[in-house]
Every structure is written in C-alpha cells, then in structure tokens.
Fold this sequence. Notes:
Layout: E1 3-7, E2 10-13, E3 18-25, E4 33-39, E5 46-51, E6 58-60, E7 68-73, E8 78-83, E9 92-99, H1 104-109, E10 116-117, E11 121-126
Parallel strand pairs: 2-11
Antiparallel strand pairs: 1-3, 3-8, 4-5, 4-9, 5-6, 7-8, 9-10, 9-11
Amino acid sequence: QVQLVESGGGLVQAGGSLRLSCAASGRTFSSGAMGWFRQAPGKEREFVAVVSWNGVSTHYADSVKGRFTISRDNAKNTVYLQMNNLKPEDTAVYYCAADQGLSLSGFRLRQGLIGYWGQGTQVTVSS
Length: 127
C-alpha cells in the first residue's frame, strides 16, 4: 500500500518559516515528479510547487516564488517544502502529491491525473 505522509505543519507568525516533509512508503518515486498543493478554507486546491525526479527542474506558483523552495531526497523517498517569509494568505492545508508518469507541466495543470496524495498538514500563519 502506497502512503504519502506529511509533517512539519503548524502555527507561525507572519514573516516566519516552516519546513514541510513528505515521506513516501510502499513504492519508490525516484523516477517521477513529487510536489505540493494547498487548499485554503472555501477555496479550491491549488498548485504550489513540483520537482522533477532528479531534483534539477522545479516549477512554482507565482504566489510563492522567491519564498518557497522545493527539494527531494530520493534515498529517503522524501520531498520537502521550505517556506520562508510566510504570509497570512499562505494559511491552508498543504498536500503532498506524487506521480510516476506526468510531466512537470502536467503535474501542475492536471492534478486530477496525479496518482498519489497525502492526507494533508495544516499551516496557519497569523498576522
């Protein structure tokens, strides 16, 4: 059984930092894309960031560029999201996702095709 388990969420003041982790078990994603989405109350789930299988290529949502950094450790089957200079509008449930076959653009634009999702971790940024 494949599982993606997120950790690292919490409550932080505006301007602060958090680091999310997502550990995969049950299969390896070392040749596929891994990334993050988020969903704020009353809003649709939106793309945040994605990283290629080798960690070389990344895509970010415009709203997080320059503040968030995605990375991965294939030896640990884990993807990370370093979030700096957090803003109240970053408050959301953050979901890890992984897929073996999608391109980075496909991962970003067609989330309905992503094969595996985590349960989510809450990030709350106070003003």
